[in-house]
Input
Amino acid sequence: MSHVNSTVFTIVVAVFILVTGIGFAASRWRRTQDMMHLNEWGLAGRGFGTFITWFLLGGDLYTAYTFIAVPALVYGSGSIGFYAVAYTIVAYPIAFIFLPRLWSVSHVHNYVTPADFIRGRYGSRGLALSAAVTGILATMPYIALQLVGIQAVLTVMGVGADTTNTYLKDVPLFVAFVVLAIYTYLSGLRAPAAIAFVKDTIIYVFVIVAVFYIPAKIGGWSHIFGAAQTHFTSTNPATGKPFGTFLPTTKKVGSTQLDFVTLALGSALALFMYPHVITGTLAARRRGAIKRNMSLLPAYSVVLALIALFGYMAVADPATVASVKKTGNAQLSVPYLFQNHFPSWFTGVAFSGIIIGALVPAAIMSIGAANLFTRNIFKEFFKPDATPRLETRVSQWASLVVKLGALYFAVELPKTFSINLQLLGGVWILQTFPMLVGGLYTRWFHRFALIPGWLAGMAYGTLAAYNTSSPTASHWASSSDIVFGFSLYIGISAFILNLAISVVLTLVLRAFKVPEGPDETLPRHFTVEATDTPAKERASVTAGEARPAPGV
Output
């Protein structure tokens, strides 16, 4: 602690205490019913309007991945890191099409998780289980990325820098984990929703200031882009290859253009499959709030593009390059950039924003994963008659276990490019796309075909990701692999395999007239507005209203 800047440390601690207090106080915010109910603890009473949903989804989607991992990838590899900007532009139109339908049918049937919908749509506990397991598994490395982001800031601050003991260096991570676990346990979704206001305000301030202030100090944008181009086109003596790409390359083997496209498309398709994003969506009061937010949230993409440019700023700044070289960790590039050029008080504000930007989504992620466990594993297979109070209690404890799993990912997996943690989760969660989004529009896919397709995609994606290597890591080192001579995002190649098997087996099963499971949804359930109460809709279903034919 001897190298810690007291001003920076004091501001970070003060803001951390402030948001922790908000997290605990949020348990009484807008509460109208008993908190021991998943609709209250896990979905905040489904009562958020457009304004709060904006901050909640913004806090949900723009995380330590945004502030640490994306510019670190740009710093280490160049243009490929801007795929994150492309995918957020593509993701919102895709989500605008299907998320309102998911909100409506969930509103009617009181679904809390995406696996609840899959269970009701296909009449398959096994298919719902596969979706729940995938959601929990994919969320853990994503939460781990938030913890890695916190660790990056604390490392640059000097916290834990005086010890060579690996476990002592990770103590700040454990402290953040404990605080996050406690206020999530007590306040549920209301805590990150309340804190998101503080987080977004700080983020917008320090990003806008940094975009104007730092370039002025290091020679302007022409110098920044010139230095980046020179660096990424020069040869790395350790590998004999260029350090990266200033513009995507077109050569067949290792083509970064196709890598860029598949990363952007795969990430866009996967983004709204995550349980935490769906949790934030289902907490909205009205269907219209979802549509408005899918129209408004692309404004965050502008901020993301500016944050990605921090990677080029760091490359052009000799002081930041020297600091990163000493540690050999590209994740520290942005924190060092801020520390080297901002006054201490503003560095403290920026570091606080990054830490809060990690805590908010981590809380929502753990809630989303915990709800999957409670509704689709515990209640479905172990305690069908579980009361709402027991469901909530199990979710509270499950959220702690999920964070423990994330802590393992954060400590044990390579951190050379922490963005691989998020992309690994994307490989997994993308395999639920056919069953979830496909089910929102059709029942053509057979439930017994979707499970083998999902299993094949999961197995291939996991094995391919495990076998990737780099000069600093023998496994889990990349999210891309060479397929037929081209570099592709593993999630896309696994998704194609998944979809192909699902289609072929569906044709076979339909040819043999294998029975399908019951469908508890009706076509009009997918367009219900908030004024159409779930009670009325459920009453019409139980009165014997006809089910849609297969394929509807």
Remarks:
- The chain has a mean pLDDT of 84.
- DSSP finds 24 helices and four strands in the chain.
